[in-house]
Design a protein that fits this description.
Aldehyde Dehydrogenase, Chain A, domain 1, 6-stranded mixed sheet, 17 helices, 21% strand, methylmalonate-semialdehyde dehydrogenase (CoA acylating), Ald_DH/histidinol_DH, Aldehyde_DH_dom, EC 1.2.1.27, oxidoreductase
Length: 507
């Protein structure tokens, strides 16, 4: 994990953000940030010391004293400026993201843009953080609610969306009056840090946003620190379950968006060309490294005959570095990810699935060292197989067959995960039946990746989510605020001998 001595002075270091200052860590433990297409070392990221992490939380706690009292309009104007800065720097942000994460430049811009939409939503906080009023609930008594910030909040984000998911978290937390400590993925923290710099430029005051780096020790400190009131997490089921249990035990609010196994049902009446294009993009785009990737296709009835055309569509996708024009599938984020995906493909073959398209070891001109796996398709998959049960997080599509729509729905509902699902059909009756009977939190009808826009909430369910409230939209305002109910009664001054009706001489 520690970088080689000869590289320590040759590449830049990723800084911490504490108290409004970019700080060089005093850590002795560092990790290299590596371009997954070339294995070039881009930077070194520190695993922050315990003292540095405590300093970040202390800075956030101190800043909360004044930030919580900042007028809501002033907070909104900061995010109006912030969204402008993100737009102006979109190309730079996408280039950084592609270099350290691997996704195509188009995907990288999409990553930033989906986060930008949440920033725009945060700028409307004046309309979102409204309480309620009931006048004269009893004789002269009014009751109203206040949505007040919690204090210091924290976020733990994954490698696969290093722009979007941090932007899901800290803008809404800060807009509602909280301060924030962010721990991005140590695999690709550079674009996150650039976004933090732009937040300071937009006017986020010192200490309101802090960034630390690290691994398990940093995660546990966030879960345990008594001054952190709420924790938001996106990542693997294993780590998310740990975060939820540990932080909840310590009395914190917690939301964890975790693993998935997203299915699409294809009925034979679906528009074939559009459906095949959607399947290919949703299964293999971003190299399959997204929690909403479409990893299972259930072909119903005569749609089973579409498999050869789906394979042809997948074969036509270009595998290369994200910076190369026309690239559809970039590299996996790390050598470890490449090894894991390759081993799961081998296990699928061993368990009897039919490998109708093998994407292992593609020849990518100019990038012999890249972590590439091309589009891979298994047919004849059963729910007992490892490739069906595990989240592969690579460009691998499992194809199952079903005789009827209800058989396909039953199969999906038996899977423990509930992040997203889709149905491809031209039948309104089938679509309505599907959306009523399916037990998954986010449903697409002829939409393969049904992630809602920020006016709504991300509503993954079952084993894909722990906690009641989603990470953006209306639900996250509730997550980042405490509802305080005030019941008040004012007496008529004349009844208590006061001068309510007395003429006042102003001379």
């Amino acid at each position: 994990m520690t970088a080689q001595a000869n590289t320590q002075t040759a590449v830049p270091t990723v800084k911490l953000l504490i108290g409004g200052q970019l700080v060089e860590s005093a850590s002795r433990e560092w990790r290299e940030v590596i371009n997954p297409a070339t294995q070039e070392v881009l930077a070194r990221v520190p695993f922050a010391t315990v003292e540095e992490m405590h300093a970040a939380v202390a800075s956030a706690k101190e800043a909360f004293k004044t930030w919580r009292k900042t007028p809501i309009g002033a907070r909104a104007r900061i995010f109006l400026k912030y969204q402008q800065l993100i737009r102006e720097n979109m190309k730079e942000l996408a280039a950084i993201l592609t270099a350290e994460q691997g996704k195509t430049l188009a995907d990288a811009e999409g990553d930033v843009f989906r986060g930008l939409e949440v920033v725009e939503h945060a700028a409307a906080i004046g309309n979102l953080q409204l309480g309620e009023l009931a006048n004269n609930v009893a004789g002269g008594v009014d009751t109203y609610t206040l949505l007040q910030p919690l204090g210091v909040c924290a976020g733990i984000t994954p490698f696969n969306f290093p722009a979007m998911i941090p932007l899901w978290m800290f803008p809404m937390a800060i807009a509602t009056g909280n301060t924030f400590v962010l721990k991005p993925s140590e695999q690709d923290p550079m674009v996150t840090m650039r976004l933090a710099e732009l937040a300071l430029e937009a006017g986020v005051p010192a200490g309101v946003l802090n960034v630390i780096h690290g691994g398990a020790e940093a995660v546990n400190l966030i879960c345990d620190h008594p001054d952190i009131k709420a924790v938001s997490f996106v990542g693997s089921t294993k780590v998310g379950t740990h975060v939820y249990n540990r932080a909840s035990f310590n009395g914190k609010r917690v939301q964890c968006m975790m693993g998935a196994k997203n299915h699409a049902i294809i009925l034979p009446d679906a528009h074939k060309e559009q459906t095949l294009n959607n399947l290919a993009g949703a299964a293999f785009g971003a190299a399959g490294q997204r929690c909403m990737a479409l990893s299972v296709a259930i072909l119903v009835g005569e749609a089973q005959n579409w498999l050869p055309e789906l394979v042809d569509k997948a074969k036509s996708l270009k595998v290369s570095a994200g910076v190369e024009p026309g690239t559809d599938v970039g590299p996996l984020v790390s050598c470890a990810a490449l090894d894991r995906v390759s081993s799961l493909i081998e296990r699928g073959v061993g368990e009897g699935a039919q490998l109708v398209l093998d994407g292992r070891q593609p020849q990518v001109a100019g990038y012999a060292k890249g972590n590439f796996v091309g589009p891979t398709i298994f047919s004849g998959v059963t729910p007992q197989m490892s490739i069906y049960q595990e989240e592969i997080f690579g460009p691998v599509l499992c194809v199952l067959h079903a005789a009827t729509l209800d058989e396909a729905i039953e199969l999906i509902n038996a899977n423990p995960n509930g992040n997203g699902t889709a149905l491809f059909t031209r039948s309104g009756a089938a679509a309505r039946h599907f959306q009523e009977e399916i037990d998954v939190g986010q449903v697409g009808i002829n939409v393969p990746i049904p992630v809602p826009v920020p006016m709504f909430s991300f509503t993954g369910s079952r084993a894909s989510k722990l906690g009641d409230l989603g990470p953006y939209g209306k639900q996250v305002v509730q997550f980042y605020t405490q509802t305080k109910t005030v019941t008040e009664r004012w007496f008529d001054e004349s009844e208590v001998g006061g001068p309510v009706n007395t003429t006042i001489n102003l001379k």
